[in-house]
DNA sequence: CATGTGTATGTTAACGCTAACAGATTTGCC
DNA sequence: GGCAAATCTGTTAGCGTTAACATACACATG
């Protein structure tokens, strides 16, 4: 059984040397052909490509990266893949990186700081060209690693704090304030809050802080609140809404602010099912502007977190700095979250 | 400005040698400590760990992988991240791999065969320990690469066809047949189909084929169908449903079969909004069993694709074969999709 | 005390590729 | 024709780590 162009999945993996022998040129020339680098005559290029194809050679990037100390990976570290927000960020990142040599590699932390630390460590051990990481809150060790890595770091989704290097996102405090103002302007008074358990989600916490801050300025307080843990789920939103409305019957709430669109949508469906007049009897709002809200019977008020744009901007920062390594860095891009009133939040009452 | 434990992000990246010098032992010993391999005395272990920590050393896996020819990565190649099905598969994969040295790396193909081919090529060039790839349909070149890679390959989500190596999934043809049978048993007659444009999605196509096959046996045909491209969206489901019901007014449909739950949910919401009696006047069913159906006003009939389980089983195959490289391979695991009637599909009529 | 058995460390040579330089050959141009 | 520049190809020496082997020393054993 000859080794030549046979289909025998030979034991020893193929190397440049095999291609070089098959095509009668040096390994270096093969390397040049396969990377389109340097001048190679058309004839040898042809020979080499044919040999590589015939053998089924796939270059070994491990060796290549070690030799050239260029690793075209961008580490993307996010809390979760299953809540519709990060896939969109990924879309933005890919849109930009697809036009470069860079390739995203994602790691998921499940909102756990220690997990984030180990994921980061794992990622850095592959010596990526850059890091895109969600949030500004990290363990000390994680911050130290990123500070010392000597590569561009972009913290995304949040700009309320001090980034290690660059940051792209919205101010969640501002988002919370903005929503509170709109709710107050619309004349709502007894406001309930439904959200995730906060220590796990700094951005939700910041929104909450901004939200209560503005309420306080208007002499208002959160009338009731309910927190859950776990992913954002429609059913959870229903349950929580039911529970909250139930226990506030003698002094009914007139607005519910949800920390994400998914539970907000659950709440909306609950209200509609139970003949509650939205937004007359009760107003509702979520957060994120996720696409599927468009299909709901009524469009939930929400605030867009500019997810695709965040991904794009972050990737652009990395790409720019990879291309020009001694560019400054420390860029901070704050996007403005746009309030969408939808059909569940009345417009401003007092135009005065 | 001393280099020692200073915070200066030194130009030259840290290597084992730096740690070795800082702790006064050989590089080899440092390597042993950092990998917990071989015997090292407690005292030197302590010194080394301290030095490594103080310097902020992160091992270089590129070099390590090259030297040991062990790369603990598992390539996971999937069509999309944004439709709720693959994140769940990822969950299953992580559940298993988290207990091993292996780490998943995902690549997204957007349902494009050529893109799959390049993503696969990129992945293989990192010499992963295994590949988990969605579907059984690939370009010839992709199949060749996988066949020659000399690593375990697990094709997931589908078992209607010949896998390259191992496969884990459900039979989509069978899923389609099963759903058709349930619909026929319930007494529905004029059935509409709403789905994705098929060439892009082989599994949806196979379900459709199984579906029509059983209809044919019962002397039935699809009465109308509508296809769209793009992600699965609630709003799309609404639109399509409206259009389809509209144009079949003189001879109304009594069942709509959707190729995924998201458009199915859109259709359900449309029907409810328009006071259509579900499942009396019209029955509905989707596919996938995604979690958020639980929060809808009425539960959509669906068929579970066992996504988490598929991920787990696939990861287990890889893990097993990495641990024991000369295990046989070629395993095929066919899971049974379970039909969930929900509230939108009547139970069997004729108990005879 | 010679011998064996650990335990703890160090040395050497890859792993597969590419940067940097060095030849060899051709081409252009006065 | 001669010399520089351009084009093509090859050689050498790593990249940072680990496998495999070699060494050194301690301790037990009969």
UniProtKB/TrEMBL annotation, chains A, B:
Instruction: Note whether Transport occurs among the keywords.
Output: no
Species, as recorded: Celeribacter baekdonensis
GO molecular function ontology, one term from the record = transcription cis-regulatory region binding
Question: Which keywords accompany this UniProt record?
Answer: DNA-binding, Transcription, Transcription regulation
Region spans: Disordered: 1-21
Top-level taxon in the UniProt lineage: Bacteria
The name of this protein is Transcriptional regulator, LacI family
Looking up SUPFAM superfamilies in the UniProt record yields: lambda repressor-like DNA-binding domains (SSF47413), Periplasmic binding protein-like I (SSF53822)
Q: Which PANTHER family match?
A: LACI-RELATED TRANSCRIPTIONAL REPRESSOR (PTHR30146), TRANSCRIPTIONAL REGULATOR (PTHR30146:SF33)
Query: Cell membrane: is it a keyword of this entry?
Result: no
- HTH lacI-type domain spans which residues? 14-68
InterPro entries attached here? HTH_LacI (IPR000843), Lambda_DNA-bd_dom_sf (IPR010982), Peripla_BP/Lac1_sug-bd_dom (IPR001761), Peripla_BP_I (IPR028082)
């Amino acid at each position: 059984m000859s080794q030549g162009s046979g289909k025998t999945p030979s034991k020893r993996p193929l190397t440049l040397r095999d291609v070089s022998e098959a095509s009668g040129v040096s390994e270096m020339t093969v390397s040049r052909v396969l990377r389109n680098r340097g001048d190679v005559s058309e004839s040898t290029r042809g020979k080499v490509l044919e040999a590589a194809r015939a053998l089924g050679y796939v270059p070994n990037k491990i060796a290549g990266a070690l030799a050239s100390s260029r690793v075209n990976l961008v580490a993307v570290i996010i809390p979760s893949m299953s809540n519709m927000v990060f896939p969109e960020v990924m879309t933005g990142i890919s849109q930009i990186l697809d036009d470069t040599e860079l390739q995203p590699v994602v790691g998921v932390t499940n909102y756990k700081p220690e997990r984030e630390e180990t994921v980061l460590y794992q990622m850095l051990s592959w010596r990526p060209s850059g890091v895109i990481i969600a949030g500004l809150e990290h363990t000390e060790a994680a911050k130290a690693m990123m500070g010392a890595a000597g590569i561009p770091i972009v913290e995304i989704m949040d700009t309320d704090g001090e980034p290690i290097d660059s940051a792209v996102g919205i101010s969640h405090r501002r988002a919370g304030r903005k929503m509170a103002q709109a709710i107050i302007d619309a004349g709502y008074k007894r406001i309930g809050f439904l959200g995730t358990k906060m220590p796990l989600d700094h951005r939700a916490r910041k929104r909450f802080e901004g939200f209560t801050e503005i309420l306080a300025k208007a002499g208002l307080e959160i009338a009731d609140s309910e927190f859950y843990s776990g992913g954002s789920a429609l059913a959870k939103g229903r349950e929580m809404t039911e529970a909250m409305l139930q226990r506030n019957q003698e002094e009914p709430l007139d607005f519910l602010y949800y920390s994400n669109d998914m539970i907000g949508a659950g709440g909306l469906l609950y209200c509609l099912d139970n003949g509650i007049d939205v937004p007359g009897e009760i107003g509702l709002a979520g957060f994120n502007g996720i696409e599927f809200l468009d299909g709901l019977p009524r469009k939930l008020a929400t605030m867009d977190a500019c997810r695709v744009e965040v991904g794009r901007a972050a990737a652009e920062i990395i790409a720019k700095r990879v291309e020009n390594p001694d560019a400054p860095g420390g860029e901070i891009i704050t996007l403005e979250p746009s309030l969408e009133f939808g059909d569940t939040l009345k417009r401003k009452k007092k135009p005065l």
